[in-house]
Specification:
Layout lengths: L2 H9 L2 E11 L9 E7 L22 E3 H8 L5 E6 L8 H9 L3 E6 L11 E4 L9 H6 L2 E6 L3 H10 L7 E6 L4 H14 L3 E3 L3 H5 L3
Helix pairs in contact: 2-3
Bound molecules: S-adenosylmethionine (SAM), ligand 2KA, iron/sulfur cluster and magnesium ion (MG).
């Protein structure tokens, strides 16, 4: 990447945009709500079951003017979900300032593994064992969404729940490829431990992005 471009990306004036689309939030607390998704490229967390591995290499996604991303977003929805990749690898301050200047609600989907930047109306923290969240991310989380791939993940989920703030809503979400096996375990777990709720990737059942 050219030095001038790199500097603008570092500031958040440009962001490596993978895709942006208007759909229904499929997961977590806001499931069922129409929202415009901004998917930023780049992630080095390395979840082996990640459903968007094409996002990982930031160099494959064109540095895009943040102003232009917001101009497009405001045509579609009042609710904007910023995801990735790992959005917090980049400085989100300019993006969220522009979104808020346009009166839009800013939601983030993050592993929380990097310093928190930006102003967020809704912070979805989905922690990963390989690169744990920062303390700030635990403090900010409105929802904790732990992906359950096998039974060991219930223990991880409890460890993560012990670190979030007291108002944080707790979700267990089946890893998609293991859903047939793990959903019954999640159902039993939530009935036995009702502080947890189930989150499904409902967009995949609806066949929408
Ligand atoms: C693709 S990630 C991007 C945002 C950020 N890197 C993160 O992991 O939170 C968006 C959400 O999808 C979840 N996710 C990714 N792959 C999944 C899978 N195979 N099954 C269930 N959830 C998955 C993540 O845990 C996260 O909550
Ligand atoms: N419909 C829909 N809802 C989602 N919620 C979180 C997603 C994500 O990939 O961050 C996602 C996604 O990719 N599509
Ligand atoms: S942190 Fe998110 S984007 Fe990165 S590999 Fe894991 S699920 Fe995929
Ligand atoms: Mg997704």
């Amino acid at each position: 990447m050219k030095k001038e471009v790199q500097l603008l990306v570092d500031k958040g004036d440009l962001l490596p945009l993978m895709e942006a689309f208007y759909t229904i939030q499929g997961e977590g607390y806001h499931k069922g709500t129409a929202a415009y998704f901004i998917r930023i490229g780049g992630c080095d967390v390395g979840c082996h079951w990640c459903d968007v591995k094409e996002s990982w290499n930031a160099d494959l996604h064109p540095p895009t003017k943040t102003v232009k991303i917001v101009e497009d977003a405001k045509k579609y929805s009042d609710t904007i979900v910023v995801t990735g990749g790992e959005p917090l690898m980049w400085d989100m301050s300019i993006l969220t300032t522009l979104l808020k200047d346009n009166g839009l609600q800013t939601h983030i989907e993050t592993s929380g593994a990097y310093r928190v930047t930006g102003t967020w109306d809704w912070f979805c923290l989905s922690p990963k064992k390989m690169k744990l969240p920062t303390q700030e991310a635990y403090n900010m989380a409105n929802e904790l969404k732990v992906i359950v791939y096998n039974k060991n993940d219930f223990r991880f989920a409890e460890e993560q729940a012990a670190k979030v703030n007291k108002d944080c809503i707790l979700y267990l979400q089946p890893e998609w490829s293991k859903r047939d096996k793990i959903v019954p375990e999640i159902v039993d777990y939530v009935m036995a431990n009702p502080k947890w709720k189930v989150s499904l990737q409902t967009h995949k059942y609806l066949n929408i992005p």
